[in-house]
Design goal:
alpha/beta, elongated, binds uridine-diphosphate-N-acetylglucosamine, binds calcium ion
């Protein structure tokens, strides 16, 4: 495209049928606001400017997208789609081709938009239309005997004959800015809804002999808007199914593509297996041969080759090496750096800690602000007491140390390499390397001691 492109995104709709205090375009699809999806498609077209028309609750939209680098146009009152576009056009260059998108139609593909722009060329008006089984509610595309588009009639204004037409207006269109500005200025609201219809510019274009070109999306889901929570959920499944299909095409095994959720970016190596009900958030990278068991939540994490994540783990902002076995029921909090061949088991929580290769923390432990060496065995119920109520303190555990079960390591403290800590100890001072350290009260037996017996009531 050599012509200058400017994009206008309509996002002033209140979204009454969402029954929500949140502006419609801020509702999430795949973990991101609807508008973020539209902006992403818009940006792939490398426009000279993006204008967002906002209205109801719009200050929140502006705040949420303050860093998006878009121009904001306020539509104080919703007087129709033509009126909405007209709020943005004063800031649009006369040299531009204008592409109109919708903040609540999130699955439009940039490929489709590119085709529409090509159809607009330098002088035409290009419309994205679609054949629907059930066209009710949509504007109908009216063509003459030669098949040329002559106008669009809104559903509410259509005669029964017009209403029978199945080719509908998707709302997406591309048009030269100068013509658009002129036509918008000429719009009237003499229709059933008393609105300024963007669609009325079609008849104006035809009257001036401007050619109308039409294109269609590859998939109907591209043009579906979100007006209710049901539609939001439907589009979420469409989106997730698309992601699932892409991953399977790349060789990923999904136990059930219908129970698959990516809310961000997921990169997978070869022979990755993902069981049901796994939620991926942010940026997740899974190496070759990684197996993810059912019911896991994994956010902003890399997982090394052949590592297994067993069921029911919650893993955030962590890096896991290769050939590890994590879970079931492991919690990795931000800053967990797990080297290769590490085993982390049930009810083990690791935060902001390094765990060296081959180390095992298999049961019921908390490890925070700690550097764990290689080949370390941390017994069941070991707790690192990293917080004194005011500050966090570090702990180090040297290579091949063995920490007995139910040990409390009171930070700051160091356990030397090869040291052994007796079970049940409370370690408050450094434990020397290679030695057994324990703080246990010696066991004793009272020979012949008898349990008390209940006094008989006389
Ligand atoms: C519009 C089209 C119709 C098309 C349908 C596709 C017009 C007149 N009609 O109808 O031909 O088949 O979309 O879904 O264009 N908006 C504003 N400000 C307004 C009015 C609307 O920002 O004053 C935004 C809405 O937030 C929404 C979009 O424009 O994102 C479409 O508005 P909506 O009221 O849903 O239009 P429809 O009547 O469905
Ligand atoms: Ca609509």
């Amino acid at each position: 495209m050599s012509t200058l492109l400017e994009i206008v995104i309509l996002a002033a709709g209140q979204g009454k049928r969402m029954y929500s205090d949140t502006p419609k375009v801020l509702h999430h699809l795949a973990g991101r606001p609807l508008l973020a999806h539209v902006l992403e498609s818009a940006r792939t077209l490398k426009p000279a400017a993006v204008h967002v028309v906002y209205g109801h609750g719009g200050e929140r939209v502006r705040e949420a997208f303050a860093q998006a680098g878009v121009n904001w146009a306020r539509q104080a009152e919703q007087k129709g789609t033509g009126h909405a576009v007209a709020q943005a056009t004063p800031a649009v260059s006369d040299q531009a081709t204008v592409l109109v998108l919708y903040g609540d139609v999130p699955l439009i593909r940039s490929q489709t938009l590119q085709e529409l722009l090509q159809a607009a060329g330098s002088g035409s008006l290009a419309l994205l239309t679609a054949e629907l089984e059930q066209p009710a509610g949509y504007g109908r595309i009216i063509r003459d005997k030669a098949g040329q588009v002559t106008r669009i009639v809104e559903s509410k204004d259509a005669t029964p004959e017009e209403a029978a037409v199945r080719e509908v207006n998707t709302g997406f269109l591309a048009v030269p800015a100068t013509r658009l500005k002129k036509w918008l200025a000429g719009l009237r609201n003499h229709n059933v809804q008393g609105e300024y219809y963007l669609t009325d510019i079609i008849a104006m274009a035809v009257a001036e002999g401007v050619p109308i070109a039409t294109r269609s999306p590859r998939d109907i889901s591209e043009i579906l808007g979100v007006n209710s929570k049901q539609e939001l959920a439907q589009l979420e499944r469409v989106y997730q199914n698309q992601r699932a299909q892409q991953l399977m095409e790349q060789g990923v095994t999904l136990r059930d593509p219908a129970r698959f959720d990516v809310r961000g970016e997921l990169r997978c190596g070869r022979d990755v297996v993902i069981d049901v009900n796994v939620v991926f958030e942010g940026k997740v990278v899974l190496g070759d041969g990684v197996h993810i068991g059912p019911n896991n939540v994994i956010r902003d994490t890399t997982v090394g080759e052949r590592t297994q994540i067993l069921p029911n783990c919650v893993i955030e902002e962590s890096a896991i090496g290769s050939e590890c076995r994590i879970g079931p029921f492991t919690r990795l909090r931000p800053g967990a750096q797990i080297a290769d061949r590490v085993h982390l088991g049930n009810f083990v929580e690791v935060k902001k800690s390094r765990v060296g290769s081959g180390s095992k923390i298999n049961h019921l432990s908390y490890v925070g602000d700690t550097t764990v060496g290689q080949g370390v065995n941390i017994g069941a119920g070991t707790i690192v007491c990293n917080y004194d109520g005011a500050n966090k303190h570090p702990t180090t555990i040297g290579d091949n140390a063995f920490i007995g079960s139910n040990t409390a390591l009171v930070a700051p403290v160091n356990v030397g390499a090869g040291a052994t800590i007796g079970a049940g100890s409370v370690i408050t001072k450094d434990a020397p390397e290679g030695e057994l350290t324990l703080t246990r009260v010696p066991q004793s037996t009272k020979p012949g001691w008898k349990r008390p017996v209940k006094k008989s009531k006389s």
